[in-house]
Write a structure and sequence with these properties.
By secondary structure, this protein is α/β, with parallel strands linked by helices. The protein has 2 domains: 141 residues, Lyase, Ornithine Decarboxylase, Chain A, domain 1; 264 residues, Alpha-Beta Barrel (TIM Barrel). 29% of the residues lie in helices and 23% in strands. Strands 2, 3, 12, 13, 14, 15, 16, 17 and 18 form a 9-stranded mixed sheet that branches. The protein has an 8-stranded parallel sheet with strand order 6-5-4-11-10-9-8-7. Strands 1-19-20 form a 3-stranded antiparallel sheet. Helix 2 packs across helix 12. It is globular, with a radius of gyration of 23 Å. It binds pyridoxal-5'-phosphate (PLP). It is an enzyme of class 4 (lyase). Pathway: Amine and polyamine biosynthesis; putrescine biosynthesis via L-ornithine pathway; putrescine from L-ornithine: step 1/1. Belongs to the Orn/Lys/Arg decarboxylase class-II family. It comes from Eptatretus burgeri.
């Protein structure tokens, strides 16, 4: 078996330009920058663009460690795979949850070592498992027999994490029908892993993206504990609990992140107390990036419909839509966007519809909202556009992705450079194959 005696990792801080991030002038915020950019465009040259504020991610990271100090975040790259996001999180000491060999390569290319990566896709392509192993990524999830056989043939020294079923029925995106083993299946899989001589180091779950229900995590923590118990009886010594993603990315829709954390923490302390030797990690995606990106789209065309009662309905066609930055709406129409007009709020309001640029009728960003009257060329902005937006673009209709500008304010860059020592020092936890911040390290538990 592989030995992993590694020393503490000293994190290097490159300068923002090396990461493709624009360091804003002193006193300029990302909101100021957005307005400055808008003024740079002539009326007939306007195109949708995005401002990605890396400072927002820095603050999310501090909130995470404040609320869940024992839980090491492994950012889910699929949520937003921009280089600036990955490198900012790398500088902050986060780990990474990758779903494919391409994501693994993206993260490694930012100078992140393999010990900061969990391959968290329970159903993987054989070639992906092979390539991950070549790069030293050995910690990975699974939830079925077939995957165990595959891993035993391709990377028999992998450190496997059993993904169990855990569903929040109120989550925006549910994964329960696709991934996760039941308790009964888990028992069978553990027996099988024993026969194949595989190492099972822990349990993971994901309650679904956009969870509204902290109790779903509590239930899943209890179920994970049952699986740890089962595994112990079979002679496994599990060392890792991975509580997945699903945490809210903004504070205005359902319980806040801190409310989730307050409900989770006692359950973790009860079932996996300090001193139990179990390291706890999570795979937050939305939490980190949702509020960091703001999209400004332009109105390409305006149509006015007069209804029988003489009421006017405004139909606006924008230069970004459901096949672009709003792609998740194709899968979940429950997500409601709120366009914000730059016109004064004292102007008369009209019932309005915002459509995307493609030929598909479904390409409707919002079917009814109230806006002051707009004209072609006017800007509308959309907040909280960081999660599953820039990573899910399609090229349908030949439209290009909205240009994204990654920025950071001077104060936030300063905060990043002066992170407390125990957040910025990463320590290998040999039993898991992963490195985590000293503050979350099991030895500190
Ligand atoms: N981990 C896994 C395995 C996922 O599939 C996802 C989302 O699809 C995430 C983490 C990130 O979830 P969220 O963006 O809800 O935090």
């Amino acid at each position: 078996r592989r030995t992993t005696k590694k020393t503490k990792e000293e994190m290097k801080l490159p300068n923002p330009a090396e990461l493709g991030i624009r360091l804003l002038e002193n006193g300029i915020t990302s909101a100021d920058f957005l307005k400055i950019k808008m003024e740079e465009f002539n009326l007939d040259e306007r195109d949708a663009f995005i401002v990605a504020d890396m400072g927002d991610i820095v603050h999310k990271h501090l909130r995470w460690h404040e609320a869940l100090p024992r839980v090491a975040p492994f950012y889910a790259v699929k949520c937003n795979d921009r280089r600036a996001v990955i490198s900012t999180l790398a500088c902050l000491g986060a780990g990474f949850d990758c779903a494919s060999k391409n994501e693994i390569n993206m993260v490694l290319n930012q100078g992140v070592p393999a010990e900061r990566i969990i391959f968290a896709n329970p159903c993987k392509q054989s070639s992906d498992i092979r390539e991950a192993a070549v790069h030293g990524v050995h910690t990975m999830t699974f939830d079925c027999e077939d995957e165990l056989v595959k891993v035993s043939q391709i990377n028999p020294t992998a450190r496997l994490v059993l993904r169990i079923a855990a569903d929040d029925p109120s989550a925006l995106f549910k994964f329960g029908n696709k991934f996760g083993a039941s308790l009964e299946d888990s028992k069978h899989l553990l027996h099988m892993a024993k026969k194949l001589g595989l190492e099972i180091i822990g349990v993971s779950f994901h309650v679904g993206s956009g969870s509204k229900e902290p109790e779903a995590y509590v239930k899943a923590i209890y179920s994970s504990h049952d699986v740890f118990h089962l595994a112990k009886k079979l002679g496994f010594s599990m060392k890792l609990l991975d509580i997945g993603g699903g945490f809210p990315g903004c504070d205005n829709d359902g319980p806040k992140f801190e409310e989730f954390a307050a409900r989770l923490k006692p359950a973790l302390d009860l079932k996996f107390p300090r001193g139990s030797g179990v390291s706890i990690i999570a795979e937050p995606g939305t939490f980190y990036v949702m509020s960091a990106l703001t999209l400004v789209a332009t109105i390409t065309t305006k149509k006015v419909h007069i209804k029988d009662d003489d009421k006017r309905i405004m139909k606006y066609y924008l230069d970004d839509g459901l096949y672009g930055s709003f792609c998740t709406h194709l899968y979940d129409p429950e997500v409601v966007m709120k366009p914000i007009s730059f016109k004064g709020s004292d102007e008369p309001m009209f019932e309005s519809i915002c459509m995307g640029p493609t030929g598909d009728e479904k390409d409707c960003i919002i079917s009814t909202c109230s806006l002051p009257e707009q004209s072609s060329g006017d800007w509308l902005h959309f907040k909280d556009m960081g999660a599953y937006t820039v990573s899910t673009y399609t090229s349908f209709g030949g439209f290009t992705p909205s240009h994204c500008e990654d920025v950071i304010g001077q104060d936030d860059w300063q905060t990043l450079q002066t992170l407390p020592e125990d957040l910025r020092t990463l320590v290998p936890v040999d039993a898991t194959g992963l490195s985590v911040p000293l503050s979350c390290c099991v030895q500190n538990s």
